[in-house]
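S.,

Sequence below, as promised.
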Amino acid sequence: MSDATPAAPAPETPDYDALTRDIAEVPAVEVIVTVAVNLMSAAAVKLGLTEEGDAHKDLDEARKLIHALAGLLDGSATEISSFHAAPLRDGLKSLQLAFREASFVPDEPGQGPGEKYTGAVYG
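The prediction came back faster than expected:
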């Protein structure tokens, strides 16, 4: 009688050629917008703006994400149309204001996350 367990089936290896073709077909604007939305979502979670609230709140992490989002939007401003940029800028401003509100000691105007790129943000 053998105590050996049957070997698990080998996982399928990803088809990297197919993945590369899929990425190649995605327009750059779509990649930029997708990354921006992911940064916005992650920042909202770190600000405690989800149903779980404070369970994942981490203002240091939120600051980094908001700053990265602002840099991405600033750097891609000439590459994406106003159609895409306007709602992303609105979302960024909302996150910046939420950060200011969540902070125990709010940053001076112009010193908050991403304000290096956007300028001072006021309600």
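The helical segments are 16-24, 28-46, 59-75, 82-102, 115-118.

Coffee later?
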